[in-house]
Amino acid sequence: MAVPKKKTSKSRTRTRHSAYRKKQTTKIVKKIQLVVCTNCGAQKLNHHVCKACGFYNGKQVVDKSKELDSITTVKA
Length: 76
Ligand SMILES: [Zn+2]
Known about the structure:
The chain is α+β, with helices and mostly antiparallel strands. It is about 45% helix and about 15% strand. The chain binds zinc ion.
């Protein structure tokens, strides 16, 4: 049976693990596809309604002005 010649130190193990975690997080971040909204130019998720203006595929899907009104009325 193959046996490791030397004990792996805490430092070596933790360095390896931190490098692995960093790699994984960058993988996830790279997967997120940000595109520019055609209506307002804000960055939005691909194939999602724009959070800034509520447009999707050139149409107003979510009325952002109404949403703002409801928030202000709840607060008042
Ligand atoms: Zn937009």
